[in-house]
């Protein structure tokens, strides 16, 4: 058996991998998640580190509980301290009870003089039970409140962080790990209460034993130490095993899910994949079984060893007590109290070790929660800033350069661009040319490394970002499909406004979302989430209509539409573009990103991006005119138009469908898709 934590934690441990895992996953199937870092951290903790960090960890849980419900926290603390004191007093009373009972004289007389101690012991037992119930009730109140306070705290902080933090893998890992922190804080409270009781009880037993005879305290430690060690060792082994075992469980669960997966069903049958997967499922299940057998064997060895050592220590202790009695160095009553105190103390030590281990396990996650909150506060979008002018006449990019963290090359380089109020500006360019990145900077979701994004002369780096967001309505390429009703999916464009039918009707008529709603079984109240009762799935094109409708409902001064029609049929697509251009006539400022070059004919201005730079810009006429355009846009446009006109891509001599300068391909209906 290995006792080395490093060894026990095991870097990917080849010996424990099944052949199935090696074949199917190329190694162990481990999550790339934040909490997995604790596998090693916990096991590397020495007893000293555990003891030193304990007060700090308890302080975190207590602080959260204090915020949640001060009264309940004080009640738990008072009752747990009261319980410990009652146990201590009970030990003292047992001593005087035994002294009275074992003294010289008639039994009746001895009983009478012992009566106050008997009553006191009884009363203390009642007080202990009552305090235990009070503590349990107060903990029951405190637990959910603490969890809520901890959850609300981190969620509210995380919801305000910069987009850069959300897209940062390290921050993501921290979020992933910290989400368990609220649950851990809740459990930690119960464990902390148990630690307090066990500690007071232990101090009481130790104190009583020291008073009775100096040699009894070391004897107590000798008796309890093996059991405490075995509790700790077993907890560590179980923890290590859990993480080793969970890899196999996860792998076999994945296989069982695949066997009943809808998408895989056809291939499983046609290619006869079923028996192959079942064979490997069995391989992994057998590995899990072996791991559990190994753990059971370790458990037997540890328990046997600890019990033997504890038994020997007990024998020595009682022999020593007998010797002290025999030599007249200890009265019988004192020996009786000593036995009682030793038993109480031994139980307290085992309890204390178990609960401290529990606290430590949970504390790692609570510490993550704390780190996340600090990190989220540090990376929050600053509140306040410079006011934007009442009317923003233009949004201007002034020599803007931006590189994503960790990227080798900039995604935007020295970009100059103007979006005048009430105009439609189209952004076109190949895949990866920087269009979506430009929009993120325009929205203030990212800050330029150099240069400025100016809203009416105010840089987004200094502006009150809430005011920037307030003026924006956006349908991003990957706009969110909320797993809520159609009503909320539209109304969430303006979450604070009413979401009744009348409020949503004008926006619903936009882009044909009203037709989508009419086709739903419960209209606006249809749940747009598959897998739930009453949940309904709509097509990608229908979702796009809902997304456009949501942006319309927001009534932002600047509308940003990123590939708004990629999933729409030709009729719906034409309708959307017509509406976008009509909006421009109504004074709406629009930034349109699209690969459908025919749809930007009516845009007031077109910017062609290439590798993060503005390759050319101008009106449609400018860009198409060989005298003014560089040809970048014109060539792409001609290519799309030619594909549209081509009778058949297979006709010899005709240009077949291929990738053009905008990174698009012609589809059978003539529309280009990325
Ligand atoms: N979050 C990110 N982290 C790192 N690099 C990114 C990130 N998002 C985009 N990029 C990179 O920035 C460059 C520009 O990407 P962007 O999404 O802005 O292009 P695009 O013109 O919108 O492309 P598409 O037409 O395919 O939507 C690409 O090289 C892309 O790989």
TrEMBL record:
Give the Gene Ontology MF terms in alphabetical order. ATP binding
What Gene3D superfamilies does this protein map onto? ABC transporter type 1, transmembrane domain, P-loop containing nucleotide triphosphate hydrolases
Main localization of the protein described in the UniProt heading:
membrane
Give all residue intervals belonging to the ABC transporter domain: 395-636
Does the UniProt entry include the keyword Protein biosynthesis?
no
Transmembrane region(s)? 118-142, 188-209
List, for all copies, the residue spans of the domain called ABC transmembrane type-1. 84-361
Query: Which region ranges are annotated with the description Disordered?
Result: 645-674
What membrane topology is annotated for this entry?
Multi-pass membrane protein
Q: What is this protein called?
A: ABC transporter ATP-binding protein
State the species of origin: Streptomyces pakalii
Q: What is the lineage of its organism?
A: Bacteria, Bacillati, Actinomycetota, Actinomycetes, Kitasatosporales
